[in-house]
Write a structure and sequence with these properties.
397 residues; alpha/beta; 3 domains; 12 helices
Length: 397
C-alpha cells in the first residue's frame, strides 16, 4: 500500500524516501519525484497533505536528534536502535585492542568524539597492512553498524569524482583499498579534513555550499605510498594492522553487531580523557606511529633519500652539530654519488621537505669539500660566500 508520509517537498521539488534492498543491509535514499506521479498514485488533494520544507540542512546528532530545524529538512539520519545500558561489548573491545594496540585509549576517545561531538575536526585515520584477514574491513563494517546511514564506504573513483553529493553530508567517509597517489588527491583530502564548508554537486544541478563535518578513514594493502605526504604532516594517524589469525570466529561481525547498542551507550556516557590541545584535538606526538614514518619514507624520491644519507654521512665524518651548503654544493656532491639533480630541484626539496630557507651570506662560512674521485671522501673545509642552507645534526636522528 502506498504511504503518503514517504513524500516531502523541499523548496519547489518533491522527493520520496525509498529503501533499496541490498544483500548485506538496506540502503536509504531520498529520490527526486514527479508531482504528477504523486497525483496519479493518490489524487490531487494529496499534494496539500505532503510535508513542506524550505530547504535542506545537515545537523549531525546521535541523541536528541532533530529532523526539522527552523523549517529546514535535516538530511543527517537518526540512529535507529535503542542504546542499552546493561549489556557488555567484549568482542568490540577485542577488535579495538587488535586494531589500535598501545593507542587503545586514544581510539576510545576518537570514537567518543565521533559520537558526542560529530562536528569536531579529527585526524585522518589510516589502517594499513600487506597481510590478509587483519580486521580492517571488519572495523569499517562495525562503524557502519554504529553510525548507520551516516557513514559511507567509497572507492578511489568515488572520491575523485566531482559529483560528491552522495557523501558530502556523511560523518564518516571510508575509502577501502585506497590508492590516492596523486598530489591533488592528497591536497584535497587534507583540505577536506579541516574544512568547515564544502560545495556539494549533483549531476545536472548547481553546486550548493553546505556545512562539512566528514571524517576520513583510509584502508590500504600498500604500506609505503598509498597517499602523498611528507615529514611535516600532522593530519594522518597511521596504524599497521597485524593478522587476526586462524582463530577468528566466522560470525564475528554478527557478534559485534549485537554489542553495538551497549557500546554506543558507553560512548554516549563516558568523558573524553585526552584534553583538546589542537584543532584536530590530538597532538602530532599522540597519534604518531612507526607506520607513519614508513609512509613518509616511502613517499621520498631516490634523490631525497640519497640526499638524506649523504648528509648523515657528512655529520658522522666531521662530528659537528652544524654544517652548511649551497644548493650547488649539494648538486655536485650528489653527482659524485651518481645522482643528477638541478639546483632548483634541490632548493625545492630543502624548502618543502626540510623546511629550510637559504641565508644570503656576506661573510665566510664553512662547508665540507668533496673531490671527484672514484671513491668520494670528505677532505676538510673551504671558505666560501653564497646563499647557503644550514643543517643541524638532530635533523637526522
Amino acid at each position: 500500500m502506498k504511504d503518503l508520509n514517504k513524500y516531502i517537498r523541499v523548496g519547489v521539488e518533491y522527493y520520496k524516501e525509498s529503501i533499496i534492498p541490498m544483500t548485506t543491509e538496506n540502503l536509504k535514499v531520498l529520490k527526486a519525484w514527479n508531482k504528477q506521479t504523486i497525483i496519479d498514485d493518490f489524487d490531487k488533494s494529496a499534494i496539500s497533505q505532503i510535508q513542506k520544507y524550505e530547504g535542506f540542512c545537515y545537523r549531525p546528532a546521535h541523541v536528541n536528534f532533530q529532523k526539522v530545524i527552523n523549517g529546514f529538512y535535516n538530511r543527517y539520519e537518526p540512529i535507529s536502535y535503542e542504546l542499552n545500558p546493561n549489556g557488555d561489548w567484549e568482542n568490540i573491545k577485542k577488535l579495538l585492542l587488535h586494531i589500535f594496540g598501545e593507542q587503545y585509549e586514544i581510539a576510545i576517545d576518537y570514537l567518543t568524539l565521533l559520537w558526542q561531538k560529530p562536528t569536531q575536526i579529527l585526524p585522518i585515520l589510516c589502517l594499513v597492512s600487506e597481510e590478509k584477514q587483519t580486521g580492517k574491513t571488519t572495523f569499517l563494517n562495525l562503524l557502519k553498524v554504529i553510525f548507520e546511514f551516516n557513514m559511507t564506504i567509497n572507492t578511489n573513483e568515488d572520491f575523485r569524482s566531482r559529483f560528491n553529493s552522495d557523501w558530502t553530508g556523511k560523518l564518516i567517509i571510508a575509502i577501502d583499498e585506497v590508492l590516492l597517489d596523486k598530489k591533488e588527491d592528497s591536497e584535497r583530502i587534507k583540505n577536506l579534513s579541516t574544512a568547515k564548508y564544502y560545495k556539494a554537486e549533483s549531476k545536472g544541478k548547481d553546486k550548493v555550499e553546505v556545512e562539512y563535518f566528514g571524517k576520513f578513514i583510509l584502508c590500504s594493502n600498500n604500506e609505503t605510498n598509498f597517499v602523498k605526504t611528507d615529514a611535516t604532516e600532522i593530519r594522518y594517524w597511521v596504524r599497521k594492522i597485524s593478522t587476526l589469525g586462524k582463530s577468528i570466529n566466522p560470525d564475528f561481525l554478527e557478534a559485534l553487531t549485537k554489542e553495538v547498542p551497549s557500546f554506543s551507550y558507553f560512548l554516549n556516557t563516558r568523558e573524553v580523557v585526552i584534553k583538546k590541545t589542537t584543532r584536530m584535538w590530538f597532538t602530532k606526538e599522540q597519534i604518531h606511529t612507526e607506520a607513519l614514518d614508513v609512509l613518509i619514507r616511502g613517499n621520498k624520491t631516490s634523490i631525497e633519500k640519497e640526499l638524506e644519507v649523504m648528509l648523515k654521512d657528512e655529520f658522522a665524518i666531521f662530528e659537528l652539530s652544524e654544517l652548511s651548503y649551497t644548493s650547488k654544493n649539494l648538486v655536485e656532491m650528489l653527482k659524485n654519488r651518481g645522482f643528477i639533480a638541478s639546483n632548483h630541484y634541490i632548493s625545492e626539496i630543502l624548502k618543502s621537505k626540510f623546511n629550510l630557507e637559504p641565508k644570503n651570506s656576506s661573510y665566510k662560512w664553512f662547508r665540507s669539500e668533496i673531490f671527484s674521485t672514484n671513491t668520494p671522501v670528505a677532505t676538510g673545509f673551504t671558505d666560501e660566500k653564497g646563499r647557503y642552507y644550514t643543517f643541524n645534526n638532530d635533523m637526522f636522528e
